[in-house]
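Hey all, quick one. A colleague (J.T.) asked me to put the NAP job into the tracker so the inputs and the structure tokens live in one place instead of scattered across chat threads. No bug as far as I know, just bookkeeping. Sequence used:
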Amino acid sequence: MNKYDVIIIGAGPAGLSAAVYARRAGLDVLVIESEVYGGKLSKTYEIENYPGIRKIQGLELAQQLTDHAKDLGAELITGEVKEIVCSDDSKAVILKNGNEYEAPYVIVATGTKERMLDVPHAEEYTGRGISYCAVCDGFFYRNRKVAVIGGGNSALEESLYLASLAEKVTIIIRRDVFRAEAGLVGRIRNNDRIDVIVKHLPDSLRIEDGKITGLVIKDTESGELETIECDGIFPYIGADPCTEFLDSSLLDENGYIIVNEDMSTNIDGIYAAGDCTRKRLRQVVTACSDGAIAASSIAGRMK
Ligand code: NAP
């Protein structure tokens, strides 16, 4: 079995920051990522609230974080974790492909996974008109019409990006208030390529000749149906923590990992950081902070 001082599960901002801090403390570090290095950052168009950097493309910050961890000597691999098996002073991290890695300390930084649109045929049309990544697929909708569902930071940020390509962006929210930051809401209101429809929920897809040509939405008060003309649909309706492989004793009722101030959990040797933890503010900067604290806490115990 391959042995390390610390195994970090997840290579988003939290996991990569933990790797940077752990390597600088002289620890042997393995980072395991199931999708892309950089995590959700890689799917984010721009970051404008990482202090000291006024504006940076998500992909570029993801690349810089990854390179930073690698340059310091962290080992990064791709794989999906099946379970963590704890013994007295060691943790075995077992991947779905059967590989096993061992360390006295594990940091779980697996982030969250976006919620899927729940209307008939949504799964079938994912990648064929429904997309969860504006940065990846926005280009296909140049000079066309798109609908964005949701009123959180993700929906509004990606709507602004889509408005730079599409002819028209229609945002549909289920209440009459946004959940996103006020600054973003102001920019949405001032963008004449963006319309907002309040108090409506997605109901069904309008499909013609095998293509999405519209989204049927339902008034949350009257129940009346209306069709929005669109070629693409981008749901940004929140996310759930990627913690299903963990012991339920670590989690709160919504699946988020409960952490202490030093990012430790209620299982000795298991730490957690970033969006997968129970916390108030989910941002790149707070994810990086969590990762730094988790790694420093572990380094302090290894002295
Ligand atoms: P979010 O903040 O949970 O917002 C989800 C949005 O989708 C809300 O408007 C919600 O409506 C709506 N919604 C939920 N379920 C729905 C459904 N079934 N049908 C229609 N609408 C539905 O999610 P998020 O935007 O993905 O953000 C996740 C976390 O990451 C947040 O903490 C956010 O602040 C953070 N984040 C930060 C940044 C940034 O700071 N730059 C960028 C992206 C994300 P209600 O409001 O009515 O519940």
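Adding what we noticed when we looked at it: The pocket of NAP is lined by residues 49, 149-155, 157, 173-175, 179, 201, 236-239, 282-283 (CB under 6 Å). The chain has a mean pLDDT of 97.
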